[in-house]
Amino acid sequence: MPAELTVRPSLRRAKYSLALCIIFLCLVIWFWLAVMPDAKWWILGVGALPFLGPLLAWLDSTRTLMVVDDGIIRYRHGLVSQTTRSIELRKIQDIRVERSLSQRLWGIGTLVLETAGESSRLSMADIDRPQQVADWLLNESRKRGLGQANG
User: Fold this and answer.
1) Is residue 117 packed enough to be buried (19+ CB in 10 Å), middle (13-18) or exposed (0-12)?
2) In contact, 7 and 133? CB cutoff 8 Å
3) Mean pLDDT value across residues 96-111
4) What is the DSSP string of 34-45?
5) Where are the domains of the chain?
């Protein structure tokens, strides 16, 4: 049975943002009821507006997926119209992990795969444990005897 790995963008930031949005909404409701009870009901929209951030982060997580199965990496991107790119593990020339300061604070990073060819770069941002994923990809290619593709 082939080894399999599934990677999606992290939802860590979205979860913490959602918690902050709930606290902010509770404060807006308290302010509306305790301080300004005569204010219009639309003031609740001010408290609900920040929920767009976690919603957009969740949508980003659902529209991007990378699956490694039987020596082939399949990268799918898109929500309504989707693009799927398939790459053989043996064709990968370079695997890089890039982490900005904010990504390091959140424990996430960007995985960058480079291959020989026309569209040679595949980048997947904000994934959990990016170095472990990169190491897994390298080990899997070595197990299959495909690690000698570098020139």
Assistant:
1) exposed
2) yes
3) 94
4) II-TTS-TTHHH
5) 4-149
Cβ partners under 8 Å of residue 129, min gap 6: 107
Tell me, what DSSP letter sits at residue 113? E
Model confidence pTM above 0.85 = no
Q: Could you read off the pLDDT of 36-60 as tens digits, one per residue?
A: 878 777 778 888 889 998 998 888 8
Torsion sign, CA atoms 1, 85, 137, 111: negative
Task: Tell which CATH architecture fits domain 4-149.
Answer: Roll (2.30)
Query: Does 143 or 106 have the greater pLDDT score?
Result: 106
Q: How far is CA 40 from CA 23, 36, 95, 123, in A?
A: 21, 9, 55, 47
